[in-house]
Amino acid sequence: MVRGTCSRTGTREEGPQVRIILLGPPGAGKGTQAARITDAYGIPHISTGDILRANVREGTDLGTQAKRYMDAGELVPDEVIIGMVGDRLNEPDARTGFLFDGFPRTVPQADALEQLLVDRETPLTVALRLAVAKAEVVERLTGRRTCEQCGRIFHLTYDPPSVDGRCDDCDGELAQRDDDREDVVLNRLEVYAAQTEPLEHFYWERGLLRDVEATGSPDEVFASAQGILDGFHRSA
Ligand code: AP5
Ligand code: MG
Questions:
Q1: 136-175 pLDDT, tens per residue?
Q2: 1.10.10.60, 3.40.50.10330, 3.40.50.300, 3.30.230.70: CATH of 18-132+192-235
Q3: Ligand 1: which of 50, 134, 140, 224 to mutate, judged by most atoms within 8 Å of the beta carbon?
Q4: DSSP code string of the chain
């Protein structure tokens, strides 16, 4: 299996590790915030979408299987995702702390993650829900560009690169994701409402759900997330 791009590296802070999931619709800013949070707390960024896209690029069996679902904005079957995540959690960097971006996405995935973490005696610290209006996410996604080399995320209006089409960090080429066409985005939002929103109740029932208002600038959103996470980080 191909692992996908990781967030920018470099740990600013050492300390007890936190185990986070990011909830929120497509375009809420999960990838954008994940890069900041994983840098700040020194934990790996595990994005199931990035792992799947890396497998598509490499032409693996997993990638071939996943591509038709992704192109249509549908979810990849649970058994494929759960196996992939189980393998990733076995890697040494993810044994004690991690941030999941785009996983879990269904109740069976959340049940499977809960069991994996019980087995490892590493319970989840928090589920952060990024809240943003539908009209805004459509604009965010249609203007998104991603570095093909390092995975850094840009936006043509809100966070443009210094040089057109090139990444500020590594000079890699910026590309538009295949599933960021407006018709596919609208289907992804419907799929989120039907299959992923029930997870908000799942984590609320367990006392793990915390809300982050995701409409300010990326730095403002990060400051809100940090306000919540610092409390857990100190007591972890
Ligand atoms: P995935 O890659 O997880 O995509 P997603 O959940 O649809 O979310 P996005 O990556 O589109 O949005 P984001 O919230 O990360 O926003 P970003 O930070 O980039 O999944 C893709 C597909 O893979 C799925 O459809 C499915 O097929 C499959 N898949 C993945 N995981 C799966 C699973 N667990 N089970 C089954 N199938 C799975 O930001 C978006 C844009 O907005 C950027 O341009 C950014 O610069 C900009 N922006 C961010 N924050 C702000 C802000 N505060 N203000 C202004 N602009 C902002
Ligand atoms: Mg993302």
A1: 999 999 999 999 999 999 999 999 999 999 999 999 999 9
A2: 3.40.50.300
A3: 140
A4: ------PPP--S--SS--EEEEE--TTSSHHHHHHHHHHHHT--EEEHHHHHHHHHHHT-HHHHHHHHHHHHTPPPPHHHHHHHHHHHHTSGGGSS-EEEES---SHHHHHHHHHHHHHHT----EEEEEE--HHHHHHHHHTEEEETTT--EEETTTB--SSTTB-TTT-PBEE--GGGSHHHHHHHHHHIIIIITHHHHHHHHTT-EEEEE--S-HHHHHHHHHHHHHHHHHH-
